[in-house]
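We were asked to recover a plausible sequence for a given structure. The inputs and outputs are reproduced exactly as logged, with field labels preserved.

PROBLEM: sequence recovery
POSITIONS: 154
GIVEN STRUCTURE:
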């Protein structure tokens, strides 16, 4: 990295620190030529995967919509608005760091459910009923049995 003060081509890294929540690395550098110090911020260029609907259309991930869906699913359950926010945030982070170009909406629903099951089974069941499009009640029952079992294991 070139020195921004004297254009010396070779500067030294004095310190580097990972800023986890931003997927970034902050470095403190100094120039051996002019002695000045400066910082750099390196950020990973991550792209949010697009969500592919059941109609095969691609659309951007909509955090507000997920929040609304979760709020609807959380009605009468013990899920707090903070837990909803946390679920949205974690889902967003998982999508962001998945490195995938797109994600089918069913896989997104599974991702959300995995998080929800950890927080509130009742809200998860309601979310699944609304978003997983089960063909018949026994599919739903077997999904539920599996999900609860996986949840206990984790
Ligand atoms: Zn310099």
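RECOVERED SEQUENCE:
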């Amino acid at each position: 990295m070139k020195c921004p003060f004297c254009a010396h081509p070779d500067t030294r890294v004095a310190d580097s620190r990972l800023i986890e929540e931003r997927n970034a690395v902050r470095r403190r550098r100094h120039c051996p030529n002019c002695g000045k110090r400066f910082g750099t911020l390196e950020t990973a260029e991550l792209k949010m995967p697009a969500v592919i609907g059941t109609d095969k259309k691609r659309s951007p991930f909509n955090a507000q919509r997920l929040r609304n869906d979760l709020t609807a699913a959380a009605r009468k359950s013990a899920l707090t608005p903070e837990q909803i926010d946390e679920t949205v945030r974690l889902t967003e982070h998982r999508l962001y760091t998945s490195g995938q170009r797109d994600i089918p909406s069913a896989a997104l629903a599974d991702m959300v459910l995995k998080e929800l099951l950890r927080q509130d089974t009742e809200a998860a069941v309601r979310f699944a009923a609304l978003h997983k499009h089960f063909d018949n009640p026994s599919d739903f029952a077997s999904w539920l049995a599996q999900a609860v079992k996986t949840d206990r294991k984790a």
